[in-house]
Amino acid sequence: MNTSQKINLRTTLLLLLIVLAACCRLLPQMPNFSPLAAIGLFGAAYFKKIWQICLIPIAATWLSDLLINNVVYAEYFTSFVWFYPGFYWQYGSYLLISLVGMLMLKKVTVTRVTGASLMATALFFLITNFAVWLGGAYPQNFAGLITCYVAGIPFLKGTLLGNLVYSGILFGTFAWAQRRYKYVLDGHS
């Protein structure tokens, strides 16, 4: 098998794992238990081109959002939803998580993936709850901001567990495949 075929097979496996993880959003699960930050970290660790690192996780988020908003939760919307209000906060947090993943996951180890998952949890929590506060759901002062963050704590558990579980599945599956099919998957996307 030549190098080009190895790279294409490796990239195909990476994309397949990302698509499967994104489809898991359709499964019933606890609030905020999501594969999206893990997808960003996974892409940052294994894709080599910045456009892949940034675009693929955002595309997975957007495509799964289209399905969720227009099929699963279609009854809550009056028309087709391309983007929901405030989407840019969530998407921005995943983009930032991917960029942090580039820095933290130059070498993939269990410790680094765990650390990146914890960092992703903190970033998502801080950014999205700040957006809720900024949107006027709480008084626009420091006490209102703190109240907003405190109100978000129950959702933090789902975010943390989702990041850890899906990172474990994505990174673990790919590591297993690399060991099992070493001669086929060696290459760089």
Automatic annotation (TrEMBL):
Pfam families: DUF6580. It comes from the Bacteria. Keywords: Membrane, Transmembrane, Transmembrane helix. The keyword Protein transport does not apply. The chain crosses the membrane at residues 86-105, 117-138, 158-177. This is ECF transporter S component. The lineage of its organism: Bacteria, Pseudomonadati, Bacteroidota, Sphingobacteriia, Sphingobacteriales.
